[in-house]
Amino acid sequence: MDKTDIHECIDQIKLVSLSKDISLNDFVSEYKEYELFLKESALKYQEKSISFTHLLIHREDNGIMAYMTLSTIFNTILSF
Questions:
Q1: pTM score, two decimals?
Q2: pLDDT digits (tens, 9 = 90+) for 15-46
Q3: Closest by alpha carbon to 22, among 49, 58, 50?
Q4: Strands 13-17 vs 64-71: parallel, antiparallel or unpaired
Q5: From 3.40.50.300, 3.10.450.50, 1.10.3720.10, 3.40.630.30, which CATH number describes the 6-79 domain?
Q6: How far from 37 is each of 3, 9, 10, 47, 70, CA to CA, in Å?
Q7: Beta strands in 1-80 (DSSP E)
């Protein structure tokens, strides 16, 4: 996908929470540590409530375009 205004492609994408049902095999990143985290650690961290990951997915081919992981640790620190 070319660089375009988000409003031009909003109908082509969806934001979903990471789950066991989503295949991560085809995800490739130029930053190998990002790729390894998503494929090997993100779901484990989510199951332990360490962080939660959301995927930006292309509706046509279900390809992962991007992901973001939000940590829950900061909230825990503030609770003490």
A1: 0.78
A2: 999 999 999 999 999 999 999 999 999 999 99
A3: 58
A4: unpaired
A5: 3.40.630.30
A6: 25, 27, 27, 14, 13
A7: 13-17, 51-58, 64-71
